[in-house]
Amino acid sequence: RRGPAAGAAASGGSAVAAGSVSVVLLAGGVGKRMGAPMPKQYLELGGKPIAAHSLSVFAGLPEVLEVVVVCEPEYRDLFRAHAGGRELKFALPGAERQDSVQSGLAAASPAAALVAVHDSARPLVTPAEIRACLADAAEHGAAVLGVLLAEPFVAVIASGFLGDAEKVAAG
Fold first, then answer.
1. Cα 56 to the chain's mean position, in Å?
2. What mean pLDDT comes out for the span 17-37?
3. Of 137, 144, 99, 121, which is closest to residue 21 (Cα–Cα)?
4. Confidence at residue 165, expressed as pLDDT on a 0 to 100 scale
5. Which uninterrupted H or E stretch holds 162?
6. Alpha-carbon span 16 to 62, nearest angstrom
7. 143, 56, 54, 73: CA torsion to nearest 10
8. Residue 4 has what pLDDT?
9. Neighbour count for residue 73 (Cβ, 10 Å)
């Protein structure tokens, strides 16, 4: 990424036509590393499930033609309740993330000019970030959104403390 000011989206506009993007919203993970009683995307944040925040951001964009939610059938009503009236498509998750992505892509409309794949457990993405990524994808054929780490972090593994790491900056 060239940075948050890059692309037509930086000025609030969009280089991507309305109704031209299929979104594959991944919500099939089980969250085994987190150890919560339910998958993390269904834990509440600010009064609604984390995944619902992610859905709301994408569902509110005019560039989005459709949202394909990849989740277990028992969670479909949760997404419908937070879709803001938008019709949703659903696909079943696979054994691994790549299988879930493939399932979502198979359900996406062939009429879409672009496909955005998003992890529903990442609710803090903004419309401006999405638009900048879509503009880059339209220009270059593909794009990935990444966020620079602003603060130092400490790496820890099960066997113990590894130490302070340097600030991470993309090159």
1. 11
2. 84
3. 137
4. 47
5. strand 160-164
6. 10
7. -110
8. 34
9. 8
